[in-house]
Amino acid sequence: MQDMLENWSMRTNAPGDNIFVTFSVRHPKLGDYFTASLTGKRISSSAADLALFFWLMPHNVALAIYWEVSALAWLWII
């Protein structure tokens, strides 16, 4: 149920070695009915690492699509 009475809030810590983000939704009648959180840790990376990651991402997506197509084709054949 989503209506205009909801109150969305986001909490996060100051950027540092760790990050913590929480989203929550509070409704006057239903109370707290949705909460999502994310915890992350900073890792070091070089420009070369980032370039390789973004260069490989389309290839990873294409491979995932072909994998799903082959799985569906296999099910269709059986």
From TrEMBL:
Q: Which UniProt keywords apply?
A: Membrane, Transmembrane, Transmembrane helix
InterPro entries associated with the record: DUF1365
Residue spans crossing the bilayer: 50-77
Question: What's the name of the protein?
Answer: Uncharacterized protein
* Organism of origin: Camellia sinensis
